[in-house]
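Researcher: Next entry in the queue.
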Amino acid sequence: MKRKQIVILLAAAMAAGAIGGTLFSPAPVGAVAKEMIELLTGVNQIQQGQRDMQSSLDTKFTVLKTLVDQQSDAVSKLNVSIGALQKTMQDLQANSGAQLNSMTTQVQGVSDNMGELQQRLGKINSQLTDLAGTLQTLDAKVSALSQTQQPATQNPATGTTSSTPPGTVPSNTNPASLPGGNPATSATPPPSSQTLYDNALNDVLTKKYELAQQEFQDYLKYYPTSDRASNAEFYLGEIAFAQQHWAEALDRYSYVIDNFPKSFKYDNAYFKRGLTYIELGKKANGIADLRTVARNSPNSAEGKLARDKLRELGASVTGGR
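Model: Structure for this entry, 321 residues:
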């Protein structure tokens, strides 16, 4: 608006100068009128140009404001989309962690079964070898007996003969009727260690936790010094962990660590004890266990899982942040 006023003032000054020049100049009146007309025409053109420029500026400002509003809407929608994506990623990570723990337990169970199957095959081969030797010995004894004839003895009471060797009790004799004889007593033996362990492991894999817990406890009761006693202790910890019985899980994992340093489950017990500490709110203890696994067994599955968990917690393997 100031520019417009300046232009008008200049035009007025020029017009006044022209009029003054006309009054005090000897120039003809027609020439002065012509100059005034040209001057007014120029002023009008300047004013029209200014209006056109103002209109153009108003239009461009409106377009720019529309673009800014559209950009603001787009940014708002993008922020909403990013928030939803972050929520989805968090849910996915949580679900993946639970699935990974379940899959890890199943893989461990399959690995155990494979190792135990190999041991059983080795034992079966050894038993077959022993059985073959026993059969050869029996064949030799049968051949020796077939070459000799044992004389029949006569029963004075009945006058019949019997080929029962001296000192042999007939099969139809009641042991209780013999001098000093006692009736046979029977006690139900516990299941074999292999059967009991396999049943318990299968029940863990199928999430029959209560049944598996009882079977592993029975296994430790009957076979406390077996090679798989540490595995049974570890799986009792796994059952407690799955049921969120954190204190019991901590005790089971710690028992494996303290008493079975050469166990196949040693690193896994350290890793799961670290997770249990974290669930109990003892983050420093949990990070310490995870670092132990990551440093001592960097190439194992447990070591890789420990490193991933440390990164998730914002902690490093070496102890820094």
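Model: The chain has nine helices and two strands.
Researcher: Noted, moving on.
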